[in-house]
Specification:
Layout (H helix, E strand, L loop, with lengths): L1 H11 L10 H12 L11 H22 L24 H10 L3 E2 L6 E2 L3 H25 L2 E7 L5 E2 L8 E4 L11 E8 L9 E7 L5 E7 L3 E4 L2 E18 L3 E7 L3 E3 L7 E8 L2 E8 L4 E8 L2 E9 L5 E4 L2 E18 L3 H20 L2
Antiparallel strand pairs: 1-2, 3-5, 3-18, 4-6, 6-7, 7-8, 9-10, 10-11, 10-18, 12-13, 13-14, 14-15, 15-16, 17-18
């Protein structure tokens, strides 16, 4: 009977089982950071499945507390007995009468009593709020559609085409979108004091052929049905060729440059590359088209040279030759299926209120 009571308490009220649902998130973090395959991380959606199980568990806890809200005895003697006890020098009947007059309710046997408290209601409200947060988050992730497009001035790009995305994350129940517009970048604005992350003048071409032109900045969002479209930053991709003695190729490829803070040199974009034992850093200043390449071999600097894009055909330093054949100028556009953040926030507030009730009323 004592073992059964402990099991019931472990499943219905104890916080220890909740720690089980931390195992998979910890394994996922370790597998990514340590680049190893750990158990439960080989599935496509480990965190989604983990959260689904957690949602069912929280729903069970909520229903368990809900069905006990109207009972006179809510917790019951099976919830555990105090570790400390002491004898009362009064008859049992007298003690029962005193407790009953103070609002305590006894079971049918008369060996257990409890008094209603707001903490029970607080626990139930906490689980209700957590259930709303988890269920809403799972539904959003089931239909998740989050992609990134690098687009430049030129032909229009159909955002309904999966091939248009550099990176795309979808949920297990995501359908291929059909209502997203085509985008055509008409003009790009490099980062400056007015547009710290850059901006782009974009024509949104809807399915009915109507066209809407908008200046999209990093803080702006274009709403297209159930999707949000926003710009995050400018990206440069120079194609750099490095040779030794004009013959031996050292590196030949594109490098993605992202904006980095630089108080001394103004707006600077930076990227890295690795080729064999060589580590390279590439810096680009769009205001003056200045491109700088620094190459290290271990701790030894092998190269540090600059060239002006579209002015200098190549730059030489010692026996190294640097050539920038072309430069991709992209606007990074993100497309995301809208999440129900208002419901998640509401559920979080409800859970917090319940938690405060629980700790304030014991």
């Amino acid at each position: 009977m004592k073992i059964d009571s402990k099991i019931i308490r472990l499943v219905s009220t104890s916080l220890w089982p909740l720690l089980i649902f931390l195992v998979i998130p910890i394994f996922v973090i370790l597998s990514v950071s340590l680049h190893v395959h750990l158990p439960f991380t080989k599935t496509q959606y480990p965190l989604l499945y983990n959260n689904a199980c957690l949602t069912l568990f929280v729903a069970f806890r909520f229903l368990n507390y809900l069905q006990g809200i109207t009972r006179a005895i809510r917790y019951g003697s099976c919830k555990g007995t105090p570790r400390q006890s002491f004898d009362i020098a009064r008859p049992a009947g007298t003690v029962r009468s005193l407790l009953a007059s103070s609002g305590y309710v006894f079971n049918s046997v008369g060996n257990y009593c409890e008094k209603r408290d707001g903490g029970y209601l607080g626990t139930m409200i906490t689980y209700a709020g957590l259930f709303v947060v988890l269920l809403t988050g799972i539904c959003d992730n089931m239909f998740q559609y989050s992609g990134m497009v690098l687009d430049g001035i030129g032909v229009s790009t159909d955002l309904n085409r999966v091939e248009a995305y550099r990176h795309l994350i979808t949920g297990p129940m995501t359908r291929k979108p059909s209502t997203l517009p085509k985008i055509k970048i008409l003009k790009q604005y490099i980062p400056d004091a007015t547009y710290p992350r850059g901006a782009a003048e974009i024509a949104f071409i809807l399915a009915d052929g109507k066209e809407q032109t908008i200046l999209l900045k990093a803080s702006d969002t274009y709403r297209a049905g159930a999707y949000d479209i926003y710009m995050s930053k400018m990206v440069y991709e120079p194609k750099i060729a490095i040779t030794i003695d004009n013959a031996m190729p050292v590196f030949n490829g594109q490098i993605t440059l992202n904006q980095m803070p630089s108080k001394e040199n103004g707006i600077v974009f930076h990227g890295t590359f690795v080729e064999g034992l060589l580590n390279g850093n590439v810096y680009y200043q769009p205001e003056n088209s200045r491109l700088r390449v620094v190459v290290f071999k271990g701790n030894m600097q092998m190269l540090d040279t600059e060239l002006i894009f579209q002015v200098d055909r190549l730059s030489k330093s010692a026996n190294f030759s640097i050539m920038c054949e072309k430069m991709g100028v992209w606007t990074e556009i993100h497309v995301m299926h809208r999440r129900h953040m208002n419901i998640i926030l509401l559920g979080g507030i409800v859970a917090l209120i319940g938690f405060l009730m629980r700790i304030a009323i014991r």
